[in-house]
Design goal:
This protein is an alpha/beta fold. The chain is about 30% helix and about 25% strand. The chain has helices spanning about 50-60, 80-90, 130-135, 150-160, 165, 180-190, 200-205, and strands spanning about 1-10, 20-25, 45-50, 65-70, 90-95, 110-115, 140-145, 170-175, 195-200. The structure holds iron/sulfur cluster. Iron/sulfur cluster binds near residues 32, 39, 72 and 98.
Amino acid sequence: MLRVTEIFRSIQGESTHAGRPCTFVRLTGCPMRCVWCDSEYTFTGGEYFSLDDVLEKVRDFNCKLVEVTGGEPLAQREAFALIERLCAENYEVLVETGGFVPIAEVDPRANIILDVKCPTSGEEARNHWPNLERLRADKDEVKFVITNYEDWQYALGIIERYELDQRTKTILISPAWDAVDLKDVASWVSASGLDLRMQLQLHKYIWGPEARGV
Ligand code: SF4
């Protein structure tokens, strides 16, 4: 069984897939506590679903793209089996993970979107660094949520140290909502000389930062 906070259809709000129709499977629970977390409602509660029930709901929404997210989706052991089943049904699967749980056993057909936690998150020490060495240049993305200049400098250091421009399809620079001047982030990104992608959380601009299930 899987503990599930919500399953819904919307458009992808982040990553290179932003704007595409997508079914989201949001699993309950997360071992991290990022200070700017926008999904604290996933920490508790949820309903138990069998894998078959999750798949049936996903089929009903009729989207080619499916994102498994949380919370921290990989904190539930059965999430790995869910990802495998979704891939076997030929969905294009995105796994959005906070970077604390090893990704080694994720079905290789799935696309990983891996957060690297910057210092201001308060969870930097829990980054599982071997995950960065497993990223694949043809399909995986890495994301830095930036709250200030210190986070930006930290991101640059990690990108260089792990050669993330070689290892990933895209490096996402995502300003934390309402925490940093977007023009500042745009100027840092544009002057970096690196092939980065600044992203805004599209769903929050459409439905507002507090909306759930959209
Ligand atoms: S890893 Fe994600 S869900 Fe967990 S606390 Fe951090 S932002 Fe929130």
